[in-house]
Write a structure and sequence with these properties.
This protein has about 475 residues and is an alpha/beta fold. Helices cover about 30% and strands about 25% of the residues.
Length: about 475
């Protein structure tokens, strides 16, 4: 007889492990199934985010930023640093240590909250009395039964048609995080989050980086003014970004990768690189879930169909995170995971998609929440805009990083904040104030009247709020 649980979570990424822990805290008997393995074959919960996404990429970004500061910026502070070298193997080892610490932390939280962990691939077998039978294919195959099922199986990197990932020459985000030496020439297809972050890492370490983007505009989802400011900074750093290209045949060989493409003018071009990172988006992961066994509905993209509350077409089956509609963001998955656990408990879990922040951890960082100026124009919304450059911020000057600005958009009549967009130092941290303000329906005047510490980067947010009504405290 299979083991019985109140809630079974399939997938141990940000949406899955958070859902499992919250459900256990609410008094349910919970199991979580996850198949990620470390280099020794042991469990490595945390999903793409922890293993080959958010966490390891930030570790490499931090290491490469230290290296660039030591080589290019220490002298400005009177610090002499000569013969600075990067030990790539040690940098990768540190990244792996950071990942393992996060893996182990999740396993500890499972134990602390009495979540039963199963290491293996979870898949549907059939509907059972009062729930569903789930097979766990791990070191030993077993079956468990749950009254409520939460699917949190995440997403996979999208490959170019006809050019599969070999993770040696043609890399997904996984292979991009395991490069053993600095490539002399690095190519990237796609100028999204992964492309810009990984391009920044290897550019700082000495690679000649070329990014090929199919769209005619840079960072089309970002506020246009902010995107232009960011591109100026990346151009200055030496990232070569070509827009409006059409990628053709890609050939791999002993000497690396050859990419044939046409540029925005329609001219035939060729790019030879040592390695190629493909970052053209991600696809929902339902591989091996055996959805057909129970009739679980998928949409045309292969995502699990859910309603506004993350309910699927099957009673007692829910889905969260990258495997459903909405932005593929770890923190969005976490919020959905908590909300679903609370809904199962009869509570009113809530996720506000309008206040989900976005961050690109480049230098300068790019962060935003709410609508862009171009979206407001397209929707016919009357608005006011205010911005303030970090060039005029005392804390930014002291840091030695005055790139970028804070931009605030507010309703022309009510003054309610509709969007905040930041490019510059610590944008990932500064955006949280805007998220809180928008969640509580704050006006730009509310932000303008709040006392901000001096000197701090957050003063730029206050100044942007003041600028919405053409005011300033900067004399």
């Amino acid at each position: 007889m299979s083991k019985q649980f109140d809630v079974i979570v399939i997938g141990g990424g940000p949406g899955g492990y958070i859902a499992a822990i919250r459900a256990a805290q609410l008094g349910f008997n919970v199991a979580c199934i996850d198949e990620w393995k470390n280099d020794k074959g042991g469990p490595a919960p945390g999903g793409t985010c922890t293993n080959v996404g958010c966490i390891p990429s930030k570790a490499l970004l931090q290491s490469s930023e230290h290296f660039e500061h030591a080589n290019k910026h220490f002298a400005e502070h009177g610090i002499t640093a000569t013969g600075v070298k990067m030990d790539v193997a040690k940098m990768i080892a540190r990244k792996d240590t950071v990942v393992k610490q996060n893996n182990d932390g999740i396993l500890y939280l499972f134990k602390k909250n009495k979540v039963s962990f199963f290491h293996g691939r979870g898949s549907f077998v059939k509907a059972a009395e009062g729930g569903y039978e789930i097979k766990v294919a791990g070191a030993a195959e077993e079956s468990i039964t749950g009254k409520q099922i939460i699917i949190a199986t995440g997403s996979n990197a999208r490959a170019l048609p006809g050019t599969p990932f070999d993770e040696e020459l043609v890399l997904s985000n996984d292979g991009a995080l395991r490069v053993g030496a600095v490539p002399k020439k690095l190519g990237l297809i796609g100028s999204g989050v992964i492309g810009l972050e990984m391009g920044s890492v290897w550019r700082r370490l000495g690679a000649e980086v070329t990014i090929l983007e199919g769209l005619p505009t840079f960072l089309g989802a970002v506020d246009e003014q902010i995107a232009k400011e960011a591109k100026k900074a990346f151009d200055k750093q030496g990232l070569k970004i070509e827009l409006g290209v059409k990628v053709g045949e890609i050939k791999t060989g002993k000497k690396g990768v050859n990419i044939a493409y046409t540029n925005a003018k329609g001219e035939a071009q060729a790019l030879d690189v040592d390695k190629l990172i493909v970052s053209i988006g991600r696809v929902p992961n339902t591989i091996g879930l055996n959805t057909e066994a129970v009739g679980l509905a998928l949409d045309e993209r292969g995502a699990i169909v859910v309603d506004a509350d993350c309910r699927t077409n099957l009673p007692g089956v829910w889905a969260v995170g990258d495997v459903v509609r909405g932005p593929m963001l770890a923190h969005k998955a976490e919020e959905e995971g908590v909300a679903v656990a609370e809904r199962i408990a009869g509570q009113h879990g809530h996720v506000n998609f309008n206040t989900v922040p976005w961050v690109i951890y480049t230098s300068p960082e790019i962060a935003w929440v709410g609508r862009t100026e171009q979206q407001l124009k397209a929707d016919g919304v009357k608005y006011k805009a205010g911005s303030f450059p970090f060039l005029a911020n005392g804390r930014a000057r002291a840091l030695g990083d005055t790139t970028g600005m804070v931009k605030m958009l507010a309703d022309a009549e009510t003054d309610e904040i509709l969007g905040v967009h930041i490019v510059g130092p610590m944008a990932s941290e500064l955006i949280s104030e805007a998220v809180v303000a928008m969640e509580f329906k704050a006006s730009s005047e509310d932000i303008a009247r709040i006392c901000h510490a001096h000197p701090s980067l957050s003063e730029a947010t206050k100044e942007a709020a003041l600028a919405v009504d053409k005011r300033t405290l900067n004399f």
